[in-house]
Amino acid sequence: MVKVYEIDGVRPVVHPTAYVHPTAVLVGDVIVGPRCYVGPLASLRGDFGRLILEEGANVQDTCVMHGFPEDDTVVEVDGHIGHGAVLHGCRVGRNAMVGMNAVVMDKAVVGAESIVGAMAFVKAGMAIPPRSLVLGAPARVVREVTDEEIKWKSFGTKQYHDLNVRSMQTLREVEALTEVEPDRRRIEFGADAHRTKT
């Protein structure tokens, strides 16, 4: 069961095609759009400003989203937010990526198809042009993102689209085994590995 909390009469919205892990917490004015993935222990706290995940966005484990009153924190279509990142009152553009443990502050805008590197600190109000590679603390634009890098990022986001479906279909709480079984199978990847069998 997803941990969803109403505050001041405002309740989170989760599209039926979105997957939110049961240990994630959604509070108040949170809107999770179609085909989104919200990972374990993520905290989306819409008790001040509105939080919006547009279609196909993913917010991975231990990420935090929050913002100031009357401001929106938005991850646009196919936005990709890596493990442990913090988004506060900012906008992440279409098909952009925020790397692991990066921080994006208030009124900052990450342009479409940009990549914010792991551990970067994007200061308040920074406007990152589309297709920019951003690194450092404080973050700075170091160069334009290549077509190959965008292809790599898009492939990673597609894996999270697939994980959304896999999680909705097969993830369930169970008791741990006490020892490794003989011929233990691995998680399968590939075009047909996780299609629904009919």
From TrEMBL:
Originating species: Massilia horti
- The parts of the chain that form a coiled coil are none
Q: Report the InterPro entries cross-referenced here.
A: Hexapep, PaaY, Transf_Hexapept/Carb_Anhydrase, Trimer_LpxA-like_sf
Q: What name is this protein filed under? A: Phenylacetic acid degradation protein PaaY
Name the source's superkingdom: Bacteria
- SUPFAM superfamilies, per database record: Trimeric LpxA-like enzymes
A Pfam family recorded for this sequence: Hexapep
